[in-house]
Amino acid sequence: MSFLARLREDLDAAASHDPAARGSMENLVVYSGLHAIWMHRLTHRMWARPGLRFPARVLSQLTRFATGIEIHPGATIGRRFFIDHGMGVVIGETAEIGDDVMLYHGVTLGGRSLARIKRHPTICDGVTVGAGAKILGPVTIGKNSAVGANAVVVKDAPADSIITGIPARWRHRQVKETQAAVDPAEYIDPAIYI
Fold it and tell me: What is the CATH number of domain 3-193?
């Protein structure tokens, strides 16, 4: 896919995920989530070349200072990825993110180990992660799932799950939740209100 085609795809993804998006030119200039992912694509290519790992880290840190979003150059990120607002997002080195994933601000895809192993989450296609959620360790969040705001996830969740709470628990989506757009910020854990 050409650079311009990928740019257009990212701008379209931003417009489809954010009702406040007013046009491609404005999104191109002011969306820090887009800037962070574009720079990540460059640093990820550099990271793949052992002689360029240090410059990749330096460039990723400059991007962090400019956008408030920290994405390690080693992280693998799919197409049409969108970070809404973005401030405080952290994505670790061994994180794997599928296509059509959306993160809100304050999300951490972090590790729980100091060993040089797969220590960050795998986020499958079509997942939405609510503001402030923490997904920690080499867990897998299944396709088309939603992680609620401020959830702390330390265990795997299957496809089509709603994941909420501290520590987070998952449940399957109900039929009505698969027919409409899902806003994970509105999910609550019913167990804490019973």
Answer: 2.160.10.10
Looking at residue 2, the DSSP 8-state letter turns out to be -
Give the integer Cα–Cα distance in Å for 107 and 26.
Answer: 24
Please say whether the beta carbons of 86 and 102 come within 8 A: no
The string of DSSP codes covering 99-110 is TT-EE-TT-EEE
Domain boundaries, the chain: 3-193
Contacts of 113-119 spanning 24+ positions with Cβ under 8 A: 113/137, 118/94, 119/92, 119/93, 119/94
- 165 conformational bin, left if phi > 0, alpha if psi -120 to 50, beta if neither: left
Choose among 51, 19, 17, 48: nearest CA to 34: 17
Q: Which residue, among 147, 28, 106, has the nearest Cα to 157 in the 3D structure?
A: 147
pTM for this one?
0.85
pLDDT in tens, 167-185: 999 999 876 665 455 565 5
